[in-house]
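Input.
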Amino acid sequence: MEAYFSIGRNNYDEINITVGDRKSGLRVVEIKTTLQEFARAITGVGYSKATFDFVPTQFTVDSILKNRETMEILVNKSSIFSKEEQSKIVEDEFLKSGLSEKGWMLFDDGTRTQQPGKKHRAILYRFVEDD
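Output.
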């Protein structure tokens, strides 16, 4: 499995290491440790202390190691400029489209972005095997 990882530090001198599946683009594990334990680990001291979590995601473990496909759908905009109403419109249109039966999942309903124009854009994902 090809993976990616990133290492970061927050304001509390905690080190965060994220490991993900390169093929699907999904984060799999997040590791947290202190700066001192991280320094011990990279200088060769084994069994340094850390905590880890499997990254919660709307996707399942079955999605890992598969290719991620992305699709945008356009829906009508809410007439009352409400994020909640727009989110409901997106979800209703997605369910009516029948795309979920083809493996598509609603990834982003687009309510966190400003979208000019008469239509509202949402993003769908699905994960497929290699041909």
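The chain has two domains: 3-63, 67-128.
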